[in-house]
Amino acid sequence: MGLLDKIFEKANEEEQTMEKLNIGIILGSTRQGRVSPQVGEWVKGIADKRGDANYEIVDIADFKLPFLGEADAPGIAAWNEKLASLDGFVFIVQEYNHSITGALKNALDLAREAWNNKAAGIVSYGSTGGARAAEHLRGICGELKIADVRTHPTLSLFTDFENGSTFKPQELHLTNVNAMLDEVVAWSGALKTLRQ
Question: What residues make up the domain containing 177?
């Protein structure tokens, strides 16, 4: 292969990378000792092997968001800019009192248009796999015009975490995570046409 061929090949690879969808893996907890970063990195590791989109961890804690209704803060603008740059989402959701965390609900409420006409998958965990939190999140997604996909990996505190703090997922979850990502990428691509 000649130098010119290599240059064209490299340019083609960069063009394909630029055309890929950008999917944010949103960590839905900000508390000390949280395990959502472990779950998020696991999902990102699976996603990155696929090569079908650009995946990145988006940690709510990094934005230092105020509570809705408090004084405006620079974090709100940065949060909205980050969300606007994404084509879809994967929410890492833990169940607190049969629902999502206050931090995630607040982060959802501090943006509006940046969520609209995008797709999302949900990976949840808790004593019942976080199923109740995921169902609450689905209702919120509908209001924000986020199309949540059907496939929903659920992780158990009893079988997928050691001592409730070290994430050790069972192999069987790999199929569900990939199926969820298939749907998120397909729906994100379709919905992107509405935003252009």
Answer: 26-195
